[in-house]
Known about the structure:
122 residues; alpha+beta; CATH 3.30.1320.10; 2 domains; 5-stranded mixed sheet; 5 strands
Amino acid sequence: xxxxxxxxxxxxxxxxxxxxxxxxxxxxxxxxxxxxxxxxxxxxxxxxxxxxxxxxxxxxxxxxxxxxxxxxxxxxxxxxxxxxxxxxxxxxxxxxxxxxxxxxxxxxxxxxxxxxxxxxxx
Length: 122
């Protein structure tokens, strides 16, 4: 049985509230879980002390048993000092895609061709 430490969504429409739970990886997101170890309220300010409430002892025990945290929960555990999370680096994130590069190249060629025609006409 593969265990995950993940978020289970609760709350109303457009008002999310999450429980941090231990669940079987095959169970639905909001379905059956083994144990609740904390909560996460994304509507609170990032510096609010009760935005993420986590029972560190339970989380540590489940990590020792082999439960794998999801990416978001791994951030919370890293902030709490329970595990080390490597920062991700994507150097190509800000680059435009292939089609955008092609369109920019075509625009540059048209602009260059247009400026040479204007110079030849004068």
